[in-house]
Specification:
The complex is a heterodimer of chains A (618) and B (148). Helices cover 37% and strands 20% of the residues of chain A. Chain A has 21 helices and 23 strands. In chain A, strands 3, 4, 5, 6, 9, 18 and 19 form a seven-stranded mixed β-sheet that branches. The termini of chain A are far apart. The relative contact order of chain A is 0.09. By secondary structure, chain B is mainly α. Chain B has two helices and one strand, in the order βαα. Chain B is rod-shaped. Chain B starts with a strand and ends in a 39-residue tail after the last helix. Chains A and B meet through strand 1, strand 4, helix 9 and helix 20 of A and strand 1, helix 1 and helix 2 of B.
Chain lengths: 618, 148
């Protein structure tokens, strides 16, 4: 019997309806089951979601989470600098401001363009077009002067901001521009040494991965991975900045004086083939002569004219066809096949020694000796001197010149080629050939690069090119002695350098016309040149000067190019501390005390230390 | 309105425990004393544990503060290094520009009004035993510090 009160009889308004306990319990259980089921379903959903998040797609959510915290910052590798042989910066990379805009944020492109144009000093329409574009990014100016960028930022224009970018700068402005070359707006080498050594200069970019909070600060103990960038190596050139500048300055003045269209001056250390200066100047459309961005010493070819004659006589002496004192009768003109070759000035037949022929730059005498030598020997010797093939300079766009193969020689090839016509060379080829004469017959491999240096200053020298023996040193000495006479009493007296013995040769070549041929008398263009070295008894410096299309008043190599050689050599001997003849005597005098500056003393001490270290194997 | 009739609850009585007396009572007192002592110890240990826990938390918090401080310092130094390297490049460029022969020549001929020498004279070397020279050879190094 149940003890529960019977509530079934209760009824009516206001009465409490009695509900059976079992029904309540059943209802309660149902609700309980429902809630439990609901909780179970919810828990199942959570577990399922958890499984999806943790097991099925963990990577996706990990990546999503990391993308919120982890910042990947590219570490740009700085492009290596280019320095001269003394470590002076010729080209280096800087971070410069660029002005960028989001056209979608700029309210009034016309008004903004007007405000910016006055500060940036650029075309208003250009800015207006950029600011009216559909995209969200537009460059308004790249690699700006920081002062200009600061002025722009002072304007506080919404949607316009500064973005730092790497830029290539040359502290010496256009000096040595042809050698250094250029980079594009993204600092990639596109010409000159910037192009050749782009791989070394560029380096490898790095990356920094770091966990950051909302404010951008690093999270302590968070992820921090850094791949350091490998900065570009510093390229050390053989160029001397001071010599380069003076070469450009004197060449500009000299070409102006000679009324030429362009000029080239190249200087080299004959023992090593290192190019100390390489200048190119051209007359612009406005008539002003300025430094060229083209390295014509390597890319331009011309018929060298009489400066080839020492090479011809090297072959003659090497083949023992004659000696410097061998005399023969030389007429004023000679007919070979259908061509007539003349000496300038004309003369009656006279007896001239080989040395005299070179001193007077006699075309006829040279042709006669070259004919005795024969085309095979001449061609072979010219090839050995490096004519007609690309040099070891490794410069982009370098020309190999033109020396016809022997099978293509005509009857007039020998007489024309032996006097420097009918053969085209680059100034570098001629300079290197002269370096062989100055270097006891050993032709050095020309080079513009000493080596590279890494971040920590470790220097790695460039592997030197192979030097080749072209003529015996005895023959070279004889040719040098003959060339000395050219400067002392011959056609190259204006190349003399006070206090120094100079050996050299002038060249006055006819220039080929675009339509072919050399023009007629009185209507010819010339290329005047002078190549030489000093001191003649111990050459330390070889210099070639070329003046293209000098005016008819100064068209000869002796008038147009030799004075430039002399002026530059006078500067270079001081810069390179090449002692004059009298200084040599003084240095060799017993008990003589040499006056020197502290800097000079330090250099001598360092040289003495290196000599001692080398001799002791240290 | 529905009311639920619940069964009348009667209070439960705790089971009567036998009172210990005599030697057994004495043991009970000892047990109580021992229990009280053990409880105090337990309380002390708990207190110490809690204190140690909070001390540990403080140490941890302090360590965290130090780590965060160092991280800020690290970030600051890193930014300073980058800025310093950039400044080095800027100064290198400035030095090279100021030393550039072209700029020096422009300043010399422009602002300073200097002119190139019309003639250049090269002094001949005077040797010690040269009797023809009217000049006496210098004695010692004229550039030496003591002689200037």
């Amino acid at each position: 019997m149940s003890r529960r009160p019977d509530t079934s009889a209760a009824g009516g308004r206001g009465a409490v309806r009695q509900v059976p306990l079992r029904a309540v319990q059943i209802g309660f259980r149902r609700r309980l089951v429902f809630v439990a089921g609901l909780l179970l379903v919810t828990a199942s959903l959570l577990v399922w979601r958890l499984a999806v998040v943790q097991i099925a797609e963990p990577d996706r959510f990990l990546a999503y989470g990391e993308s919120q915290r982890i910042r990947s910052v590219p570490l740009t590798a700085a492009r290596g600098a280019i320095v001269d042989r003394n470590g002076v910066d010729l080209a280096l990379s800087l971070s410069l401001p660029s002005l960028v805009a989001n056209p979608q944020v700029v309210d009034d492109p016309l008004q903004v363009a007007r405000r910016l144009a006055s500060v940036l000093e650029v075309d208003f329409n250009f800015l207006e077009r950029r600011l009216s574009g559909d995209g969200q990014f537009a460059y308004l100016g790249r690699h700006l002067d920081p002062a200009v960028a600061a002025k722009v930022m002072d304007l506080e224009i919404p949607g316009v901001r500064i973005q730092e970018e790497r830029a290539r700068v040359r502290p010496g402005e256009r000096s040595a521009l042809g050698v250094l070359g250029r980079t594009n707006i993204d600092s990639v080498g596109i010409s000159g040494l910037e192009l050749v050594y782009d791989g070394l200069l560029s380096g490898v970019h790095g990356q920094k991965v770091v966990e950051r909070d909302l404010r951008g600060a690093s999270i302590p103990g968070g992820q921090y991975n850094i791949e350091l960038p490998s900065h570009g190596r510093t390229l050390v050139l053989t160029i001397d900045r001071s010599l380069q500048f003076e070469a450009e300055r004197l060449l500009t003045e000299g070409v102006e004086r000679a009324g030429g269209q362009s000029g080239i001056l190249v200087a080299m250390d004959p023992a090593t083939g290192q190019i100390l200066a390489s200048a190119t100047v051209v007359r612009g459309d406005d008539g002003e002569i300025r430094t060229s961005g083209e390295h014509r010493a390597a890319t331009w070819t011309y018929e060298p004219g009489s400066i080839v004659k020492p090479l011809t006589f090297s072959a003659v002496l090497d083949a023992a066809v004659a000696s410097p004192d061998t005399v023969r009768e030389v007429p004023g003109r000679i007919d070979i096949h259908d061509a007539t070759f003349r000496d300038a000035p004309m003369h009656d037949p006279i007896d001239l020694s080989v040395a005299e022929v070179l001193r007077r730059s006699s075309n006829v005498g040279t042709i006669m000796w070259a004919t005795d030598l024969g085309p095979e020997a001449l061609h072979a010797k010219f090839r050995e001197f490096g004519l007609g093939r690309v040099s070891e300079l490794d410069f982009p766009g370098e020309s190999g010149g033109s020396l016809l193969t022997l099978s293509n020689w005509s009857g007039t090839s020998l007489p024309t080629i032996c006097i420097g016509q009918g053969v085209s060379t680059t100034p570098i080829q001629m300079l290197t050939a002269y370096a062989a004469l100055a270097n006891a017959g050993i032709r050095p491999a020309p080079t513009l690069v000493l080596g590279t240096r890494d971040d920590e200053g470790m220097f790695e020298p460039r592997r030197a090119g192979r030097a080749t023996t072209v003529i015996p040193s005895a023959v070279a000495d004889e040719v040098v002695a003959m060339m000395e006479e050219v400067v002392e009493t011959g056609t190259g007296t204006r190349a003399a350098v006070p206090g120094y013995r100079v050996a050299g040769k002038t060249g006055t070549a006819w220039k080929t016309r675009p339509e072919g041929g050399y023009g007629s008398k009185g209507d010819r263009d010339y290329v005047a040149s002078f190549a030489g070295f000093l001191p003649a008894n111990d050459p330390r410096l070889v210099i070639l000067v070329v003046v293209d299309e000098p005016s008819l008043v100064h068209y000869s190599g002796g008038r147009a190019a030799a004075p430039i050689f002399s002026e530059f050599a006078q500067f270079a001997v001081r810069r390179l501390r090449i002692p004059s003849e009298s200084e040599r005597v003084g240095l060799e005098q017993a008990g003589r005390v040499q006056a020197m500056t502290p800097a000079h003393k330090r250099l001598l001490d360092e040289a003495a230390f290196e000599t001692t270290a080398a001799s002791t194997g240290g | 309105m529905t009311a639920v009739l619940r069964p009348i609850r009667t209070p439960r009585t705790a089971p009567i425990r036998p009172v210990a007396q005599g030697p057994a009572g004495q043991r009970l007192v000892e047990q109580r004393v021992a229990r009280a002592t053990g409880g105090a110890r337990f309380g002390m240990v708990g207190l110490l544990a809690v204190a140690a826990f909070f001390a540990g938390l403080l140490v941890l918090a302090n360590f965290h503060v130090v780590v965060i401080g160092d991280q800020f310092e690290f970030d600051r130094l890193e930014r300073r290094l980058e800025s310093g390297l950039e400044q080095t490049q800027v100064l290198r460029n400035e030095v090279a520009r100021l030393e550039s022969p072209g700029r020096i020549l422009r300043v010399a001929e422009g602002r300073l009004g200097m002119l190139p020498a019309p003639n250049r004279f090269l002094l001949g070397l005077v040797l010690a035993d040269d009797l023809k020279s009217g000049l006496a050879a210098p004695i010692g190094d004229p550039f030496a510090a003591g002689d200037q």
